[in-house]
Amino acid sequence: MIKVDRGMCLGCLSCSNVCPNQNIVRTDTNESRTVHWKRCKEECDLCVEFCPAKALTLVPYDELVPESEVSFELVACRVCGSRYATLPMLMKVEASLPAGMQEDASGLEWIRICSQCRRDIEAEKAAGQVMKDRKRISP
Amino acid sequence: MVCSTGALHKEGDKTAFDVDKCTGCGLCQLACPFGVVWTDKIAHKCDLCSGQEMPTCVMTCPANALSLDFDLASRRARNRAAMLIARGGRA
Amino acid sequence: MARALVPTVCPYCAAGCGFFIAVQKGRASGIEYMPDHPASEGALCSKGNAALEILDHPDRLRTPLRRKGDDWERISWDEALDLVAKGLDRALNSYGPDSIGFLSSSKCSNEENYLFGKLARYIGCRNVDSCARLCHAPSVVGLNRTLGAAGMTNPISDIANSKCIFIIGSNLAENHPVLSRWVHRARDAGATVIVADPRRTHTTWMADTFLPLKPGTDVALLNGLAHVIIKEGLVNRSYIEEHTRGFVDLVAATVEYTPERVADVTGVPAGDIVQAARSYATSPASVILYSMGITQHTIGTDNVQAIANLALICGQLGREGTGVMPLRGQNNVQGACDMGALAEFYPGYKKADNPETLKLFEAGWGIEGLPLGRGFTATEMIERAGVGKLRAMYIMGEDPASSEPCSQNAQKALEALDFLVVQDIFMTATAKLADVVLPAAVWAEKEGSYTSTERRVQWSSKAIEPPGSALSDLDIICRVAGRMGLDFSYPDAESVLAEINRLVPQYGGITRERLDLHGLVWPCPDSNHPGTPILHVGGFKLDGGRAAIVPVQYRPPAEPISSGYPFILTTGRVAVHHNAGSMTRRSPSLQKREPDLFLEINLKDAQELDVADGDEVTVASSRGETVAVARLTDGMKRGVVFMPFHFPRTNLLTSEFTDDEAWIPEFKVSACKITKRD
């Protein structure tokens, strides 16, 4: 069965996605995400292999050890307020971005915006530039 | 590289995507500043219609405004900028 | 289940882009592009990409309908044909053939237009016209007179070979998007692009030199360009001597048009006029592209002639990358004109007032007593209907109640008819006024040939069955003719095309079997002829092989602005809609992008009227008024406003004055006033 290092887990759900037996259950509410590892007898270790944070290890099956569960608060998008990711996921992404991007003038504020809003902002920006070039003014 | 499995990887100057390797962790979505990669079960990203000679969007753009030829695109942008300057900023 | 790919021609503009319709289980399941198409190279604009959305649209007409009070009654084809035959016969017997009007359609195939005209003339009626009247009638008159052929002189793809592209009165980036790919290509290879337009449009974005002229001052500008070219000795002397007549008159006629004076009239800086003239005259290959900004004027024919003059004195004709290109609006407006859907022409531009023409067609059609003389034009028919001189009309695939200028008058006129039969795919504003409505098939549901703006005749195949009991226009015409006792037994479109081959010399060699995917370009006189992509190579089909330079003088538009109506209203198209909008406004993906009638107005003008972007305004002319959403821009000149004509309310306002030779109404200049709505 699987042992989880609570300090390292990102809550990204890779393990849940790859588990062939649906032994890793996710529960997303509006504000939080819970990942629950059922006690499993298989030794496929796919989840271990694919965990981006290396937070999982395969340990021998033991009926006495309780099933593990980790909960995360979901971070709200600064533009639309929708909850879109866990904090450890964002930290992990921040840490793995190239140095150049981290020193960007606008900083890393954009990471706190959900991807739908990023896309909208980008589209607005591009359209704004085109409209400016074509001089069709819209307030 | 935020992708731990190599599903998203560089092929020449473009980013390619290998569906088989994706675990759906969603980190790539969070790492894209433009919001053009997104995940539901697995990640989605434009693959430039790989397997076709030319992406369908480029082929069907009536004005030929889309192009895979970065030189051409930047030449047009430069021309336009030069024109704007020559006219004192009038488009 | 197998998926069949059926080659068809796009039903929207006249660029003639081809695409395949993928057919699965008798239904159109999608579009496949045609990367080797000569005009579009597989590209399609937003309209083309959305074309399949109208195929199975819930609003499609599915059965013949008869008016019953304020409501409609479904009837059988048998009853419908009886009613149509009786209605037309009654007018014919009581008031004579001149009391009937036939409006043919630039949306329908060559074969259908040919048969529709034949039906009218068979029963002795001269009044056959089509919406070509409302877009390029001046090109037909003006280009026939000056160059001897009415059509684009060079193919669309040849624009890429040009070194100087002069676009006047055309917003091709939005209205013929596929053409702009060739302009871009020429430009990438170093060509200069000059755009003359009262508005700053998407097309002007491509321009190296932009000439923002006042609406209706095109002749002044074109004469001004000729003046500079003559004065600076940039004319092509040997070409003028060898191929033209009338140059001396042009010199005299343009002597007054100095850049300074032209600048006063047009509002274009004198320096830009000189620069444009030099670019056009000195480039090794220059082409002029024009569209309805040139033709939809009371001086439309003059405008066209002034363009031809410019090309002639510079010798910019008959070679690659040169030419005069009228960009047509409808998918088959070129073909409708070729097939004689014009009041003054029989098929093949044979003049209706020439007894020789009648002899030819009497022999060809095996009848006697064809009517001599030109008939009434679309606009005249409506006028005559209004005063009770026209009693019955047969309208195929046209919507004059939306598209005619001052459309509320057109509606009243159509209501006054004793009998109106409308054959269409949707319940249009015109169909709502009809006594009988006949359901027709759209392009994908029938076969036939279509002629694109570059004179390319292409065959479009049938992909799917029409909805309900709708029939192809060709079928309907044959059945109506049959019910009227005429022998119109054509089994299919191919057999009609065979008759066209015999009677229209330009189409002599354009047979069904030779029309493969990419068609043939007329003139193609015999079955071995390869077609003629470039016209006027080595000479002209006019007296002595010479083109005629016909000098013209500037005249202001018919309707001046006044203190009561201080704005000039000009009309045009937007990228996602087509003409009267009966198709595109029913296409969800297009309608969503441009849902409402808007008015473009200059920022400063708007400020003075206290109008903000997005405000509703009332626009009124002496003929009517309408409501539109204001869009503020500094791309409009002060005092000029723009509205697209895809929305039926636009033509409530437009001017009814017409050109005296081509009888086209002046859609492009009407005086109006604007008030903010509370």
Describe the protein's architecture and organization.
Chain A is 32% helix and 22% strand. Chain A is α+β, with helices and mostly antiparallel strands and 139 residues long. Chain B is built from three helices and four strands. In chain B, a hairpin with a 3-residue loop joins strand 3 and strand 4 (43-44). The radius of gyration of chain B is 18 Å and the shape is elongated. Chain C has a seven-stranded mixed β-sheet, sandwiched between helices. Chain C is an alpha/beta fold. Helices cover 30% and strands 19% of the residues of chain C. Chain C folds into four domains: 4-54, N-terminal domain of TfIIb (Single Sheet); 76-135 and 331-422 and 461-521, 3-Layer(aba) Sandwich (Rossmann fold), CATH 3.40.50.740; 137-326, 3-Layer(aba) Sandwich (Dimethylsulfoxide Reductase, domain 2), CATH 3.40.228; 567-676, Barwin-like endoglucanases. Chain C is built from 22 helices and 28 strands. The radius of gyration of chain C is 24 Å and the shape is globular. The A-C interface holds A 133-139 and C 200, 202, 205, 603, 612-613, 631-635.
Total helices of chain A: the number is: 5
Distance between the termini of chain B: 41 Å
Mean pLDDT of chain B: 75
Low-confidence stretches of chain B: none
| Rg of Cα set of chain B | 18 Å
Based on Cα principal axes, name the global outline of chain B.
elongated
SSE string of chain B, helices as H and strands as E: EEHEEHH
Shape of chain A: elongated
What percent of residues of chain B adopt helix (DSSP H or I)?
A: 25-40%
Question: Oligomer, anyone?
Answer: heterotrimer
Number of domains as seen in the coordinates of chain A: 1
Low-confidence stretches of chain A: none
Query: What characterizes the major β-sheet of chain A?
Result: 4 strands, antiparallel
Query: What structural class do the secondary elements of chain A suggest?
Result: alpha+beta
Strand content of chain A: 15-25%
Task: Provide the structure class of chain B.
Answer: alpha+beta
Radius of gyration based on Cα positions of chain A: 20 Å
Quick gist of this model?
The complex is a heterotrimer of chains A (139), B (91) and C (678). Chain B is an alpha+beta fold and 91 residues long.
